[in-house]
């Protein structure tokens, strides 16, 4: 039976980032790390019009610079130079500009497939052992660690297990880790759009009586659409032909980018705030979407997970205790507690405020958007939240 110091369950963006953060010192410390992932990466990056994407904050860029992969990611990461926030049918609006914050971009948008390719290519397979394709079907608590049972009838032991297997983690449920689930009664319609005009690095957050929508700049003058609607209406939009769909989107978004010319494959995702009630146990960490899944409209979910990942790596590397030491894991959680509380709260409040058509609330948020331009400190706070710099600066 194989014995490892650390087993990362899930080799997606979060799991691969953790492996990268640890591999530099793992060899020096004699750590044996295994990364277990059910879906084997392809032979290489293949561009696709319909590729799903992730918004990376400026803070996430800083982390990937420290991991030595940002230069590669940046080759196909579209910079967000300006964010326009508006409320349909009202005067309230504000603009956040990178130049006002003294940064080259407020954030970036990159295709998930490209991000994954860059991370996987940077992993040192002499240090990080791959079990792929493979899936953990069961975990057994041991004295001093966990035993992992895989779907190929093999098993391995580890001192520290990290669950990074996504928001629908069956292992989290199997271990009896409860989640707080807050449904937003909306679905997100995701698609890529091509406008007639160049987006020039502009991102748009548009709030309407029917729900918020975001258009984020992508490479090749595409835009990533996230459109939140009540479930029935989202299903209706999904079923429309391309021309009718673009017509409804144009009416909701306007002509800031001219006519909307093309829409790719459309996908629906029910929206909820999901928070694990336990993120650490002795010899166990719950990370990424398995720990918290946020509404996508504020673009904070993956960035928070990446900050968690960086903080966990810092805590493990700074500790003199063996991997899996509960006090070390508790320090990590305490280190990230404020960041998580503020980010989850910010995302949840923005979602609720801008998904409510009540006239009094709509008037209040309209004044709030106007006020951001009139009160520079408030606007700067809002910008720093969007940039992933609102709570803790990384060393």
UniProtKB/TrEMBL annotation:
Keyword Flavoprotein: yes
Record-annotated FAD-binding domain positions: 5-335
InterPro entries: FAD-bd, FAD/NAD-bd_sf, UbiH, UbiH/COQ6, UbiH/COQ6_monooxygenase
Keywords: FAD, Flavoprotein, Monooxygenase, Oxidoreductase
Gene Ontology terms: biological process: ubiquinone biosynthetic process
Gene Ontology molecular-function annotations: 2-octaprenyl-6-methoxyphenol hydroxylase activity; FAD binding
Superkingdom of source: Bacteria
Cofactor(s) named in the record: FAD
Pathway(s) of this molecule: Cofactor biosynthesis; ubiquinone biosynthesis
Family under the similarity heading: Belongs to the UbiH/COQ6 family.
NCBIfam families, per the entry: PRK05732.1, Ubi-OHases, UbiH
Xref: PANTHER family: 2-OCTAPRENYL-6-METHOXYPHENOL HYDROXYLASE, UBIQUINONE BIOSYNTHESIS MONOOXYGENASE COQ6, MITOCHONDRIAL
Protein name as annotated: 2-octaprenyl-6-methoxyphenyl hydroxylase
